[in-house]
Amino acid sequence: MAEEQSTFTHGVVRIFPDGLLYPGTTPRFLNRIQSFKFRPNDVILITFPKSGTTWMQEILWTMLFNPNLDNPQATQLLLVRSASISVDMMFDTVKLEELNLESMYEALKKLCPGKNVEDGVGVQCLDAMPGQRVIKCHYPLDLMPPDLLDKTKVVYVARNPKDMVGSYYHFYKVIKKIYYKGSMDTFMKLFMDKDVVFCPYWPHIKQAWQKRNHPNLQFVFYEDLKADPQEEIRKLNQFLATGLTEQQLKNVVHHTSFSSMKSRGDPMPDNGLYNQELHQTTGGFYRKGVIGDWKNHFSQELNQEMDKWIKENIGDSSIPFKMD
């Protein structure tokens, strides 16, 4: 995928033993994350991209800080209320000015006046946030500090790989930094061959699945959350010990529904981020949010290839994905 990877100013790197493919600035920020001071009351949200991250991020923030839907901070951008510790890697932010991401600049200026953007937006904003934090992260557990689960709570969200990679394909098409122009079939094959940034997929999810019974990790399937959001949020209420009432649980469900979040607009409303024409014609950031949309896009050949890929990689882990 040389053409797309060339859009990263600092190239790409592979991080072993799993051969994770990331933008070239990643090692610089990984060193910062290894020494990052997590707090005992932090809640870390870990996902592979396009697995329901923003949805769960808003759910967690609303549960902790806005269960009565009366917190004036709820009108702020989500990236200001709940920063991402992996955003600097994702957007190669040593050259953030090339992206024209005003929302990230504003978050940094608001939380860290006078700080240098090249030292990282996510880590600096999180350092400056007072009190309890909801922290978004796309790194797998093995790249986080080894004692993370001993220090704080982690929520991991997994989405069935067919819908996830379909959503990732659309993301790759509309982001100006990448602006992928190839076909879906080609993208999927590159993804399965571990040649798309953030891949490979399987080590990411398996690391969390292996630790699903740890008392400080809550493993959530996107499809379960979609089927019965109130029940899954009730489980989170118990895991986080937030003590929400039934009415507060209903508030969270309503406020974080797909239609409600879509009505409030993109979480990163930056004109410089997206190819605007494609972004609008494909439905915006909150594109569909449905289960089984892959059926509308996969060729029979591609579906067979992905079935084989899933069977070969899932092995004896028996992760119970729901494909529709």
UniProtKB/TrEMBL annotation:
What's a Gene Ontology MF term here?
A: sulfotransferase activity
The name of this protein is Sulfotransferase domain-containing protein
What the entry lists under SUPFAM superfamilies is as follows: P-loop containing nucleoside triphosphate hydrolases
Question: What range(s) does the Sulfotransferase domain occupy?
Answer: 40-317
UniProt keywords (A-Z) are: Transferase
Domain of life from the UniProt record: Eukaryota
PANTHER family per record: SULFOTRANSFERASE SULT
Keyword field contains Magnesium: no
Tell me any Pfam family this protein matches.
Answer: Sulfotransfer_1
Which Gene3D superfamilies would you find in this protein's record? P-loop containing nucleotide triphosphate hydrolases
Q: Tell me the protein family, please.
A: Belongs to the sulfotransferase 1 family.
Query: Is-annotated flag, keyword Hydrolase?
Result: no
Species: Petrolisthes cinctipes (Flat porcelain crab)
